[in-house]
């Protein structure tokens, strides 16, 4: 499983627990459970069991109980999307997001999205936050405003040149209202499309539809920005072609004009010392690029876009130096060692909380004020994460039926099996020794995936996406 030197480097408590686990009679089954979760870092523990019954004869076809499992529990994957919490489940979530976004770019007929959408105008748009004060950056071949040429990955990148004049309150309020800015953007986008087509909004809706899939990402300065695939469809969605006037140029111009119109006003609160309204808007750096079909020589391909969106679907504010869980007070930020810039942003959330209690800024301080969904899509963009997960669940259920010798209900509709289940939550997480085992299982699986990716790339002559 691993070399002796790695085991020897463990702390005494972990090594002691690992030896206990390795010497237990259910070690092989425990390892199998961990592997079935993909090396989940914090699995959910369930106790109980299931029975498969023939409803006609009441015969028990199969029975399972956790009483015979190691520790008397069944471990199932936690399903957390955050890579900082569980890299194994985040990998699965990223894969599902990749296929969801890709299905909206190349089609997935088996999932209700025809492959003719490749002919629809579609772009990859990036909407960012405005400036809240100058920060250290890498402006091409020129030195930063501070006079220094910062290397890639320098810790000062994204931090303010002068934190005492940086608008921390405006930054966290912007993050907090980012989802509303996006909502207004989608409203104005449809209006701008209608105006450029010379139609009423009703007529434009009757002839076309806008579909999108987006993901949120944190910049180094701690501001959220959105990457979105935006696509023109016909009036009935992806199954119908867009009208002749629904061009790529019209879509691009409408996106830029709609973003420029958006305003969200946060009223002043003089009682708490905030005497001026905040007028929140998108930043001037709006990037809109057409998406080309894979293999046609375009810089921005379908595969690249889907992989980019999936990459950031599992990340959150912890990439800026914050923590991935709520924090109750400012003193805890010092104890947790949060760097100066993200700490000031989190403190701003706490300072604003009493003035704007409906915004729940203190509760979302660890997210620098952002409280929206990281990955969203319009209803008809493509398939859903739930549908993708159901396909995976059906596949595993079919494997189990085959292993038990039970008939396939699709082949034998007259064969009905009654499932009686009883499950009780029994905790979550691993012991120290089990955590070490899970980390090694996850590492081995990742190594195997990377090896498979290299082989597939050689055989297919392309970069097949595997995290």
Please explain how this structure is put together.
The structure is a single chain. Helix 2 packs across helix 13 (432-460), helix 5 crosses helix 11 and helix 6 crosses helix 8. The strands form three sheets. This protein has a five-stranded antiparallel beta sheet, sandwiched between helices. Strands 1, 2, 3 and 11 form a four-stranded antiparallel beta sheet that branches. It has a two-stranded antiparallel ribbon with strand order 7-8. A hairpin with a 6-residue loop joins strand 1 and strand 2 (60-65). The chain has helices at residues 4-8, 12-22, 27-36, 87-106, 168-176, 178-197, 201-207, 248-261, 302-312, 330-335, 340-353, 385-404, 432-460, and strands at 44-53, 60-65, 74-76, 122-127, 209-218, 224-233, 264-266, 278-280, 287-290, 375-377, 418-428. It is globular, with a radius of gyration of 26 Å. The chain has 13 helices and eleven strands. With 467 residues, it is an alpha+beta fold. It has two domains: 4-80 and 389-460, no CATH class; 87-132 and 167-377, no CATH class. The model is unreliable at 1-5 and 463-467 (pLDDT under 50).
């Amino acid at each position: 499983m691993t070399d002796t030197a790695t085991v020897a480097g463990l702390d005494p408590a972990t090594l002691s627990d690992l030896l206990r686990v390795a010497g237990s009679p259910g070690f092989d089954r425990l390892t199998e459970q961990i592997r079935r979760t993909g090396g989940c870092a914090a699995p959910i523990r369930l106790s109980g069991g299931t029975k498969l019954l023939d409803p006609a004869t009441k015969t028990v076809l199969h029975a399972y109980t956790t009483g015979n499992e190691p520790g008397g529990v069944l471990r199932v994957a936690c399903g957390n999307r955050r890579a900082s919490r569980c890299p194994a489940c985040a990998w699965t979530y990223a894969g599902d997001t990749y296929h969801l976004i890709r299905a909206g770019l190349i089609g997935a007929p088996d999932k209700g999205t025809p492959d003719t959408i490749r002919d629809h105008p579609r772009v990859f748009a990036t909407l960012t936050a405005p400036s809240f004060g100058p920060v250290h950056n890498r402006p091409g071949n020129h030195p930063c405003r501070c006079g220094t040429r910062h290397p890639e990955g320098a810790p000062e990148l994204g931090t303010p040149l002068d934190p005492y004049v940086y608008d921390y309150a405006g930054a966290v309020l912007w993050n907090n209202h980012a989802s509303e800015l996006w909502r207004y953007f989608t409203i104005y986008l449809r209006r701008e499309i209608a105006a450029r087509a010379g139609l009423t909004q009703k007529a434009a809706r009757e002839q076309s539809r806008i579909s999108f899939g987006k993901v949120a990402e944190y910049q180094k300065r701690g501001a959220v920005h959105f990457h979105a695939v935006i696509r023109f469809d016909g009036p009935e969605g992806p199954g119908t072609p867009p009208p002749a006037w629904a061009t790529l140029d019209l879509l691009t111009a409408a996106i830029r004009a709609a973003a420029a119109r958006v305003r969200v006003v946060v009223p002043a609160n003089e009682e708490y010392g905030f005497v001026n309204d905040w007028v929140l808007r998108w930043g001037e750096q709006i990037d809109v690029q057409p998406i080309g079909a894979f293999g046609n020589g375009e810089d921005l391909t379908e595969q690249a876009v889907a992989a980019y969106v999936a990459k950031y679907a599992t990340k959150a504010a912890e990439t800026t130096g914050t923590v991935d869980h709520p924090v109750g007070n400012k003193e805890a930020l010092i104890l947790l060692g949060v760097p100066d810039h993200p700490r000031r942003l989190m403190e701003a959330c706490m300072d604003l909380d009493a003035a704007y209690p409906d915004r729940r800024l203190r509760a979302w301080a660890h997210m620098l004020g952002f409280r929206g969904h990281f990955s969203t899509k319009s209803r008809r963009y493509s398939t859903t994460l739930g549908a993708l997960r159901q396909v995976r669940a059906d596949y595993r259920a079919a494997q189990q039926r085959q292993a038990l010798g039970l008939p396939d209900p699709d082949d034998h509709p007259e064969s009905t099996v009654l499932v009686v289940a009883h499950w009780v939550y029994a905790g979550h997480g691993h012991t120290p020794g089990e955590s070490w085992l899970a980390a090694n299982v996850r590492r081995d699986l990742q190594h195997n995936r990377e090896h498979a990716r290299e082989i597939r790339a050689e055989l297919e002559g392309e970069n097949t996406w595997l995290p």
